[in-house]
Amino acid sequence: MAIGRVAKNTRLETLINFKVSVRTSNKSTFVGTLLSYDKFMNLVLTECEEFRLQQKSKKYLEQVKDNQDVDQSKIKEQKRLLGLVILRGENIVSVVAQAAPNANTLKPQLRLKKGKVAVKSLMKKLTSGKPFSKLDAGIQKLKRK
Questions:
Q1: What angle do CA 98, 99, 104 make, to 5 degrees?
Q2: How far apart are CA 122 and CA 133, in angstroms?
Q3: Which of 44, 62, 74, 138 is most deeply packed, by most CB within 10 A?
Q4: Cβ–Cβ < 8 Å for 40, 137
Q5: What is the C-alpha to C-alpha distance for residues 145 and 133, in angstroms, rounded to an integer?
Q6: Smallest Cα–Cα separation from 112: which of 103, 100, 124, 120?
Q7: Consecutive H or E run containing 122
């Protein structure tokens, strides 16, 4: 699913493994990969970064709130690398998809050859009493003693 094809009313289950931006009630923004969620909208993010306004910037924005002229040079954001994060659903204001999951980040799938499957030969080795390697043979000799 490409990022351009995500609908506005998308459910969270479709955003698993997407890179998302989460805005909280204290005006912090968390950017990370969505791993999981629950019925209370608690979110689990990996490789998470937090972006939050510094105290001086918050005070400046409160003063300028009435006026529409905001000087961007006075607004400073602090960035922190957090890693694995659980966000409480009560504090979440919005969730925005930023990037679709990469093929590398998805869980690897089991790949088996069709026809003569390697699993059958492995099962024969497991069921027979023959050791797999020299180390196994050495262990078998020690058990016999």
A1: 150
A2: 13
A3: 44
A4: no
A5: 19
A6: 120
A7: helix 118-127
Amino acid in the structure at residue 80: R
pLDDT tens, 21-52?
999 998 899 999 999 999 999 999 999 999 98
pTM of the complete model: 0.61
Non-local CB neighbours of 115 within 8 Å, separated by 6+ positions: none
Dihedral (Cα; 10, 15, 21, 22), 10-degree rounding? 70
Decide: 99 and 19 in contact? Cβ < 8 Å: yes
Nearest to 96 by CA among 27, 7, 2, 35: 7
Distances in Å between the Cα of 129 and the Cα atoms of 110, 125, 132, 140 are 27, 8, 9, 10
* Beta carbons within 8 Å of 84's beta carbon, 6+ residues apart: 44, 45, 46, 48
Q: Residue with structure tokens 């969730």?
A: 95
Tell me what the mean pLDDT of segment 117-130 comes to: 55
In terms of Cα–Cα distance, which of 47, 45, 26 is closest to 96?
A: 45
